[in-house]
Specification:
Length: 478
């Protein structure tokens, strides 16, 4: 099918506008031109913030049932046009068509969960009589919208991560300005189209396409913006945090996710799950399996089977049904990953399979004998590379898993409940997946990490909590 794109327009405060200066959106598979999007100016961003002040008032006044209707109707539009969305995701980004279809279905689910969660923005009564002298008082607290939310989203989930910002914002009665990744802006614009068709009032939503260096400081530092929801790299996240001032921050900054495989585990399940978790979306996934710690007794067998399954991964054209892994987002990123592999190899790492780059493609790569202090073991690779280590015990595995300055999610494979509980208690992460890889998430669950992996939690209910404030009401009876 043909892509029906946005005709070089962006969505500013409910209006579709274009600009003289345009940004090319290209396919990382072959560098072919997909379309152009406007390069917004500083004045455009300031305009959106000013209009969002009105939008915040409009959004806060929307009845809950109307917020729910808008979210469900937008979800309907995405679902009914799902193949168009999937082809767009696969064309401008790194995902294969199969991976893109899954993202579309998740985005629909995210919007529907947001609609249902809108009815659960609740408060509680407060027993003021617990304090002597306050027996004649009664009251409660309720949650109210924070106002204007800035959302900055990455390239790797260009539709669903945008839905994770917009859905909770509308459900909780806020206005939101989204700055999508310059590499993959069209998916975000298509989501704006769905809300526009659903009848979302003007000024509540803006999708501002352009360069982060041009627009970011205004969006982050403007005093009218009360919350920043950022998903992306740690360095940029730290920069935003220093510049933001007194604002709420929610940041998911990636990871270097570990998985532990004990000798009593279901080996076939552990291998298949970690192969998928390592190479989904070419490893450009914050939950991607990067380090696997396998007990010594089963290490050789695990590596052998892991390599066998990795050999079956078919790289190639993203829109072909049989393709299971696409390219990295651009050749620069592919060269960065290639350099990490080469440097690790020069320091003694063994390339069990893969290791080569072709344009923006990097082969699925398995490394063993990696020095635990090597940058490839300490940093987030964000590419199709996995490291497998042999460990003598669960205690050692947990210590090694915790040895990096990230802590988003981890996995452990074992049939021993005591071992699982020990890992749950001691792994320094925001989530532990038992008998699954780190690469598991449903859109309703609280999601986030500790240490360098960020602050706060996403997931619809958790995001709504962050996007609202508590107001206490107290009545004196006499």
């Amino acid at each position: 099918m043909d892509l029906k794109l946005m005709n070089q327009k962006m969505y500013l405060a409910g209006q579709w506008v274009t600009r003289t200066e345009l940004i090319e959106v290209t396919n990382p598979e072959d560098y072919s031109l997909i379309d152009y999007v406007p390069a917004a100016s500083k004045e455009d961003m300031i305009y959106c913030i000013e209009r969002a002040k009105l939008g915040a008032k409009t959004s806060a006044s929307l009845p809950i049932h109307e917020r729910m209707r808008l979210l469900h109707t937008a979800a309907d539009h995405v679902q009914n046009d799902s193949e168009r969305y999937a082809i767009t995701i696969a064309s401008e980004g790194s995902k294969t068509i199969q991976e893109a279809r899954k993202e579309v279905s998740r985005a629909v689910e995210t919007l529907r969960i947001s609609a249902e969660q809108a009815r659960r923005v609740e408060g509680r009564t407060i027993p003021f009589g617990q304090m002597p002298g306050s027996e004649s008082r009664h009251g409660y607290y309720y949650r109210f919208p924070i106002g204007i939310i800035a959302a900055i989203t990455p390239f790797n989930d260009p539709l669903n991560l945008v839905a994770h910002k917009i859905g909770p914002a509308i459900a909780s009665g806020n206005a939101i300005i989204v700055k999508p990744a310059s590499e993959t802006p069209i998916s975000a614009l298509l989501l704006a189209e769905a809300f526009d068709r659903a009848g979302l009032p003007e000024n509540i939503l803006s999708i501002v396409t352009g360069y982060g260096a041009e627009l970011g400081d205004i969006l982050v530092t403007h005093p009218s913006v009360r919350m920043i929801s950022f998903t992306g790299g740690r360095h940029i996240g730290e920069t935003i945090a220093k510049k933001a001032g007194l604002k709420k921050l929610s940041m998911e900054l990636g990871s270097n996710s570990p998985v532990i495989v004990l000798k009593d585990a279901d080996l076939e399940k552990a291998v298949s799950s970690t192969v998928s978790g390592a190479f989904w979306a070419a490893g450009q996934n914050c939950l991607s399996v990067q380090r696997i710690y396998v007990e010594t007794e089963i290490y050789s067998s695990f590596v052998e089977r892991f390599v066998e399954q990795t050999q079956k991964i078919k790289c190639g054209k993203k829109l072909l049904e049989e393709t299971s892994m696409g390219p990295l987002i651009n050749e620069k990123e592919a060269k960065r990953v290639e350099r990490l592999i080469e440097e690790a190899s020069e320091r003694g790492a063994v390339i069990e399979i893969g290791g080569r780059r072709y344009g923006s493609f990097v082969e699925p790569t398995v490394l063993t004998n990696v020095n635990r202090l090597d940058p490839i073991a300490q940093e987030e690779i964000f590419g199709p590379v996995v490291l497998i280590f042999s460990v003598g015990s669960l205690e050692v595995a947990i210590a090694e898993a915790n040895s990096v300055d990230f802590g988003l999610q981890a996995g452990i494979f074992t049939n021993n409940l005591r071992a699982a509980n020990k890992a749950i208690a001691e792994l320094e992460v925001g989530g532990v997946m038992v008998n699954d890889s780190s690469d598991f998430r449903i859109d309703a669950m609280p999601f986030g990490g500790i240490k360098g992996s960020g602050i706060g939690r996403e997931g619809i209910a958790a995001a709504i909590d962050d996007m609202t404030e508590q107001k206490v009401v107290c009545f004196l009876d006499d």
